[in-house]
Write a structure and sequence with these properties.
A hairpin with a 4-residue loop joins strand 1 and strand 2. The chain is α+β, with helices and mostly antiparallel strands and 282 residues long. It has 9 helices and 14 strands. Strands 7, 8, 9, 10, 11, 12, 13 and 14 form an 8-stranded mixed β-sheet that branches. A 6-stranded antiparallel β-sheet has the order 2-1-6-5-3-4. The two termini are 25 Å apart. It is 31% helix and 27% strand. The longest helix is centred in the first third of the chain and has 15 residues. The protein has 2 domains: 114 residues, Aminotransferase class 4, branched-chain amino acid transferase, N-terminal domain (D-amino Acid Aminotransferase, Chain A, domain 1, 2-Layer Sandwich); 160 residues, D-amino Acid Aminotransferase, subunit A, domain 2 (D-amino Acid Aminotransferase, Chain A, domain 2, Alpha-Beta Barrel), CATH 3.20.10.10. It binds pyridoxal-5'-phosphate. Pyridoxal-5'-phosphate binds next to helix 7 and strand 12. GO terms for molecular function: 4-amino-4-deoxychorismate lyase activity.
Length: 282
């Protein structure tokens, strides 16, 4: 099931070709994207997602169609989704730099997709993760803006390769580490750990993507009296924590039960508490 909208709000056939072969998004992965959860017609964290799309475009020095165009396309997809049979949708916003050698006009679309059974199972049962080196230092972002650290670019081939490596090692998630051994993020998620009544995550200054789901969780947790902290922590903290989660828009707050083959602490009540906190935003 796919519902595809152009930025003028037109619904088009998702099976018909949309991009030219010389579009820079096709030939170089030169573009940006967002994935948003829409539940019961409500897009979650739409403001933070559109803000992040703008930040990514800024880091890419790329023109971005106006916000109203994205909002129009989002609404068109929502209006055409079969909500009676499918109460959840993963909504992708994609924007490429446009034609190679062209006038720089970006090309964008919004596409709604079903949330797969595999994702629902991970939400429910948790995941086994492996730590993998990401190969950069946590202070590289400021020094090397051309590496586009913390931008959500279309060049996710490395992230997907890391997921295949996890599968080859008998796991289904990855926790990337920096050259100093600190925790970065997952290929498509933010790492959050609990230490007593404190929730801790890695700072975006380390070059990770600022997560909208982690942001929503921390917002609700603070309201409920939790302490939240955004600071660098070593991979060893994963094994000492009271719980480890991978947060992302579609996977939500997924518990990690095993890291590098070692069982880590899981507490079903704590997991329910954090999931309920996240959901209390909507
Ligand atoms: C690299 C990376 N980090 C973190 C996230 C989590 O972000 P969000 O919670 O906004 O989906 C994503 C989302 O896909 C991601 O690709």
């Amino acid at each position: 099931m796919r519902v595809l909208a152009l930025l003028d709000g037109t619904i088009v056939d998702p099976q018909a070709p949309l991009f030219r072969a010389d579009d820079l998004g096709v030939t170089r992965g030169d573009g940006i994207f967002e994935t948003i959860l829409v539940a019961d017609r409500q897009p979650r964290e739409i403001g933070p997602h559109l803000d992040r799309l703008e930040r990514s475009a800024g880091l890419m020095q790329m023109e971005l169609p106006e916000r109203a165009a994205w909002e129009r396309a989002v609404q068109a997809v929502i209006d055409n989704w079969p909500w009676d049979t499918d109460p959840e949708m993963a909504l992708k916003l994609v924007c490429t730099r446009g034609i190679d050698g062209g006038d720089g006009t970006p090309h964008g679309f919004a596409m709604g997709m079903q949330v797969g059974e595999d994702t629902r199972r991970k939400r429910r049962d948790g995941v086994a993760a492996v730590t993998l080196e990401r190969g950069y230092a946590p202070d590289l972002k400021e020094r090397a803006p051309w590496l586009l650290l913390s931008a959500k670019t279309l060049s996710y081939a490395v992230n997907m390769a890391a997921m295949r490596e996890a599968e080859a090692r008998g796991a289904e998630e990855v926790i990337f580490t920096a050259t100093d051994g600190s925790v970065l993020e997952g290929p498509t998620s933010t790492v959050v750990i609990a230490q007593g009544k404190t929730l801790l995550t890695t700072p975006p200054s380390s070059g990770i993507l600022q997560g909208t789901t982690q942001g929503a969780l921390f917002r609700a947790a603070e309201r409920a009296g939790w302490r939240t902290e955004v600071s660098k922590f070593p991979a060893s903290s994963l094994f000492e924590a009271d719980g480890v989660w991978m947060c992302s828009s579609v996977r939500l707050v997924t518990q990690v039960h095993t890291i590098d083959g070692t069982t880590v602490k899981t507490d079903p009540d704590l997991h329910t508490e954090l999931t309920d906190l996240y959901e209390s935003n909507y």
